[in-house]
Amino acid sequence: MAEGCEVKPTLTILTSEKSAHVVAHADSPSVGDAFDVRRSFLLDPSRKPSVVYTQMYGQRVIFEQLDRCNAPYVVNVGGDIWSERGAAGKVSSLETITRVMQRAARVVCVSKFLASIIRKRLGTDNVTSLPGGMWGLDHTKYGICPNRFTAKTSYEFSNQPLVLMAINLTVEKKWCGIPGFLDTVQDVLKKHNARLVCFGKVKGEVHQLYDWSNKGLEFYRPRQDWPHVMARCDVFVHPSMFDGFPRVVAEACCAGLPAMVYDVAGSPEVSDNAILVNPKKPADIVCQLNKLLSNTSHRKKIGKAMHREAVKKTKQHRDDYAKLLMKVVKENK
User: Fold this and answer.
1) Local structure of residue 110 (DSSP, 8 states)
2) What is the extent of the structural domain holding 189?
C-alpha cells in the first residue's frame, strides 16, 4: 500500500432479497466517497465492518441478524412500527425489534417529531434525526429529488383553479383532518370556482369518500406521472393530522407549487416558506386559502421561495448521512 494512503472505513448496507431493488438513504455518492460500501443480504460473522446500516428493520431476516450483530449499527426509521403493527394485530416481533433499536449505535428518524415518538418508545438516548430530515436524499426515489419536477413559471390561472391534495386513506389518524378541512373551505372553493383533487392509496372501505365527493372532493389513485400532475395544479394543500416527514410537501417545494400546510406533527419541519395554518383555527385557513386563490403575485412569491428552498436544502444536506455514519465509526473505535 502506498505511503500516506488511508483505508476507508467499511459500511455494510444490510438489505434483503425482497428489498434488493431499493436504493438506501445511506447509499449516496457522499457516503461512497467516505466509506467502502458493500450491500449484503447476510452479515458475515467472520468479518466485522466499521458500521452496519439498514432501513429494512421490520423484516424478520434483518432484525434477527441485527439482534446477533457484534458491529455498531444504524437503523433508519420512517414511521412508528409499534402503532402500525398494533393496528394490524401483528405484535409478536415487536419485542425483538425494540431490543434491536435499543442496542443500535443510532436510530435515525426522518424528523424531529418522529424522533420524539421513537425516543419515548425505546426509553434510550440513541435516537436522532438528520439536520435536514429527508432533504439531501435525492439519489433515491424514496428521498426528495427536485430534478424530477419542472418548476412552475406561470402563476396565472389558465382556466378553473386546481387545488391539489395528496393523502393516503390508509391510516385514519393521518386523513382524519380531511372532513373538517372540507367543511371549512367550502365557501372559498365555491367563490373561486376551484376544483379540489386528492391523490392517494385506499385501504379497505372508506365510506366517507361518497360524502366527500358531495362536498366537491375528487379522489384519484396514485399516478406514475406525479410530477406532471403537480405541474398542472395551482395550489397545494396538506390537511394531514399525522406525518413523520410528508414527502409530498417537499415535492410541492420542488415543483414551486404554493402550499398551505397544517402546522402539526412533522409537517412544519419540511419547509420554511409554505404557509402553516392551525387546524383548530378555521378562520385562518379560510383567510390563507382565499389569499392564495385571489392573488397571483402572492402565489408566485410563495411558490418561488419554496422552489429556491428545495434546491438549497438538497445541496446543503447531501453530506449529512456521511457525517453521521463517520461519527458513529469514530465513537466505536
Assistant:
1) S
2) 146-315
Residue 204 class from Cβ within 10 Å (0-12 exposed, 13-18 middle, 19+ buried)? exposed
Contact 75, 108 (CB under 8 A): yes
Kindly provide the b/e burial profile for residues 213-223, where b requires at least 16 CB atoms within 10 angstroms of the residue's own CB: eeebbebeeee
pLDDT tens track for 77-111: 999 999 989 878 889 999 999 999 999 999 999 99
Are 316 and 135 in contact, with CB atoms under 8 Å apart? yes
pLDDT at 74 over 80: yes
- Integer Cα distance of 241 and 32 in angstroms: 37
As for how many domains the chain has, the answer is: 2
The DSSP 8-state label assigned to residue 202 in this structure reads B
Tell me, yes or no, whether 289 and 150 share the same domain: yes
**194 lies in the same domain as 236:** yes
Kindly report the pTM of this predicted structure. Answer: 0.93
Task: Tell me the longest C-alpha to C-alpha distance in the chain.
Answer: 74
> How far out from the chain centre does Cα 161 lie?
27
Q: Is the pLDDT of residue 75 over 50?
A: yes
Q: Give counts: helices (H), strands (E), the chain.
A: 13, 12
Q: What local confidence, expressed as pLDDT, does residue 208 receive?
A: 85
Is the pLDDT confidence value at 219 over 90? Answer: yes
